Amino acid sequence: LLHSRTERLVLHENPFCCYDPASDHDIDNFFKIILEIDKSLNVCETTAEVLSKKKELQEFLKSHCRIRHYSFQIKKCNDVNCNVCKQVRLPQHIFENIDFLPDPIPSKCNIIFIRILTANTDCYEGFKTVYNTETSEKYRPTLMAAMENAERAPPAILTNTKVRDIIQCFQCGKFRCLYSEKALTTVQKSEFQRVINDWDYNCGSPLVSEDHALYNILFVREKVTCESPIELAYYSSRKNYISVCYWCGYEKGLIDIPTHVSSKYKFVFPLCNICQIAGKEFFGRIEIKTNTRKRKRNDL
Ligand SMILES: [Zn+2]
Ligand SMILES: [Zn+2]
Ligand SMILES: [Zn+2]
User: What is the pLDDT of residue 109?
Assistant: First the structure.
């Protein structure tokens, strides 16, 4: 069924084509070869976590393969002591000139316009220029897009337990959370106090400049604008910050949460009357499952 449905799809006027999956027989045969690389492998345990602990397999991947997001390459290592590879059959001088396929690298004249690259594939170096050179995946368009949206702060820090303080944007008046791995020392606290006194913070900018001692210690989300709602960590940080409207950040005119909303979500965030008039609704998280089906059965 999936087969026939997928083959009806078309992308850029090319119809999709389905291939038959590997049969159990093929998989068994293939696994026999893999066992020669690492005898401790088990066909039933092939999760990434299990495989990451298989020493011989990992060694093999490092010395014979190149793994990229969209490709996997494998090549004989040409080492006489290798007990996996058979002897190279190509003439030696040809084999030695064969390298892994290079990653896309933007052409030099275009390096300043790297952002445009995501839309324009013609700005890459020619194959001959980058072949036999050390390349990496850093110019993969989807990776570049992800990096652009990624916060500078380590992801593990941006949680409610690492909120140390809040700062108010001088433009929109919203509070933004400040995160750090460890609680600030007395010295750091006084540095932070000086920052607050000396400079106007606004949404989207880093807390301090790059040369400041707190630049890599105390973080604020930088991928926000004055339009972004209040962070959820503001409410869950257990620092008892004043209750403010999730959408606009004001503490006045908050409306009571109606029961049809509070019974639907585990967490409901405040809403003010101005935002409600503007068409905003209560923002809720984690829907409470009401098992209506079960109840019906009990009614019968
Ligand atoms: Zn080898
Ligand atoms: Zn703002
Ligand atoms: Zn509001």
Answer: 58
Ligand 2: centre distance to CA 71 (Å): 42
Are 1 and 59 in the same domain? yes
Question: Low-confidence residues of the chain, pLDDT below 70?
Answer: 108-122, 290-300
Q: Which value does ipTM take for this structure?
A: 0.70
Q: 251 and 235: one domain?
A: no
Distance in Å, CA 187 to ligand 2 centroid: 28
Q: Which residues pair with 176 in a beta bridge?
A: 167
- Residue ending a domain, choose from 55, 87, 119: 87
